[in-house]
Request: fold
Amino acid sequence: MMRFKLGSAYFVILGMITLVFGGLEVVTGLPGIEGLSAGALEIPPDLWRGIIIFFAGVFIMVGALKLRNIHGLGMSVFGSIMLWIIAGCDIFARIMESIPNGTGGLNTLEGFLATYGPPYSPALFLLPLSLVIFYFIIKEGEK
Reply:
């Protein structure tokens, strides 16, 4: 069907983008290399996080090639879940950083809201794009 062809193309592209961001995080996680920042995007220097995002991209991309098959869909879902875990950790870290003000007290409203501004990690940018997998999960359940 056409939706599976479009879905496969979409998730191959998403997987490649995720793979590249994971690779960049692996490179910046190597000793002596600093993180990258460009506008609203910040690539943190974390080797393990980069490895997880890299393999999430691999799973999304390989699964997308067989999206019509339950095993391919499962691989894409697994890669998306890996990405969601990293993004969830980023969101949780932002929430925890927004509460204290650094001097032992609670943050002001302005300081609280300022912690939610850019720059954002690649996982936070990719999170909404990966939620499309729910459409294919629902369509698989309707068979």
Summary: Helices lie at 2-28, 47-64, 70-98, 109-114, 122-130, 133-141.
